[in-house]
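Hey,

Quick one before I head out. I ran the complex with TSJ overnight. Inputs first:
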Amino acid sequence: MSDETKVTQEYGGEQIQVLEGLEAVRMRPGMYIGSTSSSGLHHLVYEIVDNSIDEALAGYCKNISVTINPGNSITVTDDGRGIPVDIQPQTGKPALEVVFTVLHAGGKFGGGGYKVSGGLHGVGASVVNALSEWLRVRVFKNGNIYEMKFARGNITQEMRIVGTTDKTGTEVTFQPDPEMFDTTQYEYEILHTRMREKAFLTAGLSISITDDRGDTPVGETMCYEGGIREFVTWCNRNKTPIHNDVIYMSGTKDEASAEIAIQYNDGFNEFMLSFANEVNTPEGGMHETGFKTALTRVLNAYGTKNGIIKGDDKVSGEDCREGITAIISVKLTDAQFEGQTKAKLGNAYISTLVQQIVGDQLATYFEEHPQTAKIILEKAMMANRAREAARKARENARRKTGLESGGMPDKLQDCNEKDPSLCELYIVEGDSAAGSAIQGRDSRFQAILAMWGKMLNVEKARMDKVYSNEKLSPLITALGGGIGEDFDVEKLRYHKIVIMSDADVDGAHIRTLLLTFFFRYMRPLIENGFIYSAVPPLYKLKRGKTERVAYSDEQRDQVSAEMRGDSNAKVEISRFKGLGEMDPHELWETTMDPKTRTLRRITLEDARRADEIFTVLMGEQVEPRKEWIEHNAKYAINIDI
Ligand code: TSJ
């Protein structure tokens, strides 16, 4: 048996627990929380909050609060029953101590536990404790306040009673250990978004989030009696729904339950979020499969029966999901998470359950609301016709490019290498920046594509317009993998695609446009991690003949101090106005040379956010656009909409 894994014999077969020293967690933090970057740091909060949410799901807790304290410690409080404090016969220790000092894998402490729980729930407290410089827990229970303290997982104060109370609940405050994380700076927006999601998923539960680090506290209390119905309304807040009601469906079978809420908007994109035991499943799985199957079946059956779909015609699954916003939330006792990131639900019986629910209840809804049914069916029919038109436009585009010399656009300066895994494509805005990039690059493996002027507004355009657009078609041709349903990663000509735009508002704008386009029409590019953003320097520092650059204000100050040295020599600092201003050699050294450059990989989350900003800025709703611009005035002054 290894040092890290000691299986205690006292636990019966039905409650197998793997007890490990918390040192194991500190040795390999990434194994327990995914990473030690910002994402892992935020994960600590979710691990703690999930315990309070389990208490809420069990019916004992109504309010949860999360506070970011000055210094980036976090306090989570709930009004549940309070973590048990009695002495466990197996260990001779208070249950509370066991929760924070013993890694739980599998079974739950104290018997009973919770019926429905996400993959890792209840595992987290000891992990968070191990990775905290200090942690304090207070339990309000039996009229007493129990308190216990730890440092880096070790007990610094045994459990003791520190006062009396008439409340019940649990309060945990922890300070993430800077030795364990790349950063200990919490981002309010990240926690806010996650807590809002949890509040939507647990109808009636009130979650408040507060950021106490600034001069005045910032925060919001979120409670949604309508649950996922309100989640759909919220997702569509900047869109234009084409029917008033959110359609809600739910059901249970044995230990499993499912609820689904949908509403169509006048856009062309599918927005589906799914959850298993309140854990997001971005890779989908059986709940999504069941939903899609039933939706397609119900729309075709209703359309055919009521003469909206004629003869042998059919609408495809994709046609049925154009402009849909859907939330699917299932709960089950034996959730199987599969896929690359364990983010795909594998239980096949859930597909059957969701199909039954949607099959029955959506058909009934359509019978009772023929007006809404007609609107949705007509939208699907329109999608079907547009898809036909798009197919033709795509074929035309393919035929046309086949006739051009070598098939490649003139705005592309290709590289010599042909193996896609070694090739990089730099997408550069503006002719002068493109000129520098062409001269500065290593043409063996770096290709340059110049883009200029205003790009097509993808939000308002149908697919067929996108395929034949003159600004986008060079990009589509250069990448070589096709677009939309036809997109094929195997045919891609580059495995690194770098968006190189200026570090200003216009640069951000073009980046947003491109990301939105990739997100909607070439999503596998992002899923495969092929999209990057170049990080050009902001400042040039000069002392005599010595020149250096800085990528941030902090770095500028640091480099400037270094260059000045003890002699207090004069250092000239100038700001790069844009990429076009750099000479080819500078651009190569600071932004393109694999040995010295920084590239930021774009995640699906980045792209989703770009998509959202885009909807606000380019969509038809005026009010949210005004709000966004007012809110972001300091960044958005020059955005041309
Ligand atoms: F993660 C944690 F352990 F640190 C933590 C747990 C943090 C916070 C903020 C809250 C909680 C928590 C645990 N809230 N509520 C509970 N409930 C129980 O642990 C509990 C209480 C009573 C019984 C019982 O059977 O009587 C069982 C359980 C699991």
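The chain has three domains: 3-221, 228-386, 408-536+599-635.

Talk tomorrow,
K.
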